[in-house]
Amino acid sequence: RAKSQGRNRYQFFNHNLQADIINNKRLADEILSGIENGEFTAWYQPQFSARTNELIGAEALVRWNHPSRGLLTPDKFLKIADEINVVQTLDRLVLDAVLRDKMRWAALGISIPKVSVNVSARRLHDESLIDSLLNLYIRPGEISFELVESIFLDESEDIAAHNLDRIKSLGIDIEIDDFGTGHTSIVSLLKLKPKRLKIDRQLVQPIVNSPQERTLVSSIIDIARSLGVETVAEGVESAAHAALLHELGCDLLQGYAFSPPLSYTDFTTAAAGQTWRLAS
Ligand code: C2E
Ligand code: MG
Ligand code: MG
Ligand code: MG
């Protein structure tokens, strides 16, 4: 009995594995045709000053208008896009969309001082990155690149460091994304002289109930501040979080307490009407 059960289990596993391979292959093909058909777009999540609650900017986040499955978030496709070596194409499409949308906002008289885009390891290490940026018109400080800690740990560190300097010299700011999820020390990260440090929501969410976590976040903010690096809290889900983060000296707030990511149209309507209110 045990033997037949073992075999069944094996077949079950095998069957799932095969289904996964087929699904991933289909998804990969759909990503490629989605790129061809312009199905990927940028959504925007607003960021606010902790001090004044003023709109300071937005983070652009990739979304996929899938022809049959509807709107898809990155957890459904980013890993496969990375595996088939097109994540950098998505990054570039998002930046193109941001620059186009910024012009539309300017024409409408809406001021969004800064928009940040997420940059994958593949794109940072891409030797043609700088050339592709040179073709764009970007005013100093209006765009920033969000890079996760792990980008600075892998092999081709030289290209990354070289590209980092060139990116800064083009007037694009650097932000460390998801700080606190990796194993890099804050000191080594701040040596990169980023403009901002984004504190991951896993660190931010417990601060209201846990004095220990509050102290940790407070120390991160203090170290960053002493080095002239701005701090952004991610995953700010309540007014209590927002108030506490302001008290701890955090500069910028981003999270569902203010707004989820929005389509260009919804973001533009809200920005034009200044309709954002802090949810409690
Ligand atoms: P991220 O860069 O850390 O972006 C923040 C994520 O947290 C977004 O998920 C956002 O919707 C979500 N979020 C915002 N506020 C809250 C909150 O209050 N509570 C909770 N629980 N979540 C919140 P999203 O849009 O699904 O993106 C997931 C990740 O995918 C991003 O994390 C980023 O790592 C990656 N990503 C998104 N767009 C791009 C892109 O254009 N290029 C690359 N390379 N990666 C991207
Ligand atoms: Mg990000
Ligand atoms: Mg993040
Ligand atoms: Mg995060």
UniProtKB/TrEMBL annotation:
Task: Show where the EAL domain sits.
Answer: 24-275
Q: Which positions make up the signal peptide?
A: none
Superkingdom, taxonomy of origin: Bacteria
Protein name per the record: EAL domain-containing protein
